[in-house]
Specification:
Structural class: alpha/beta
Helix content: 40-55%
Number of strands: 9
Low-confidence stretches: none
Radius of gyration: 20 Å
Distance between the termini: 49 Å
Largest sheet: 9 strands, mixed
Order of helices and strands: EHEHEHEEHEEHEHHHEHHHHHH
Shape: globular
Mean pLDDT: 94
Length: 349
Amino acid sequence: MSVEPKLVTVIICNYNYADYVGEAIASALAIDWPNVEVIVIDDGSTDNSQRVIEKYVPLGVRAIFGSKQGQTASAERAYNESRGAWILFLDADDTVHPAIVREAVGVMKPGWSMIQFQMSTIDEAGRSLGTIFPKYRSDVTPDLIRYWVSHTDSYPTPPNSGNFLARDFLEKIFPLEKGMDRATDSYFLSTAPILGDVLTVRKPLASYRIHGRNLGAQSTTLSLKKVATDLQRHITRCNYATRLAGKFGVVIAADRWRYGFYNLAMRLTSLRLDPSDHPIPNDTIAKCLRDAVLALITPQGLTLFRHIGIFIWLVAVALFPKPLARRIVSWRFVPSSRPNLLRRLMQAA
């Protein structure tokens, strides 16, 4: 007797992305799997989004239109109305590859919470930008990821659209803690390695669109305010994951965020270039450098070359004259400002 394939739910939260949401929906409908439901929830858009979304309703898309509440509230509403055993939260400006579900099924093991893929970058028009991220080590395992997270609150992982989630895991984090973060992926990226196994597929099976309005990206110029805000978000997210882990009997250090290279980059940038807006009380350059030394010897999913390269970058930001420090900070946070040689080195690392 044949067993019906499990239902996959693709949830697309949209706000004023009329230019892109149609492509996101079309990619979800093109997924090569016999049992898929697509739910699009619009968070009170003021552009042409509703008309675009309604075009796909005859094709089986379920559309929900609401007033402005924010991404997490929209995601939770759609999740509560979904039926899938497996869930994909697809950003309205991204797309997924038709094979994403079959690739996930190919690596599934009991106890998995999340399956993460690589993402390719595209521009506003959907043209390839020629880069693929994150860079996963060939030896990555769920136990290694759990170790990296429990010691540094960091591991190579894509944003929202590059992750496939088990409902059994999501039931542990829903309902979402109100006000913890405005991005849905902050809730599951920080907790999936702690409450289950994160499996990794080293293939680009989703496309990340870069257009200047991305929540997690800098624009064409460096914003120190955004750096400080994102640093505070990461600390808040770490504290949230620590509390949630404790509810399930997992004890991890609440201050492990100090040793993650990404957080260190934001700490030093904020402290060195805009100390008046730095979100960490009593923080100092000396404390950052001490934590950077510990980060250098603490595995967090990066190659040895990247460990050394990031450490040197951190020291340079801490000690170089401010004009030069600002330039190399811009190279880190604003990819379009990087010299070509640096871009090639980073791709090869």
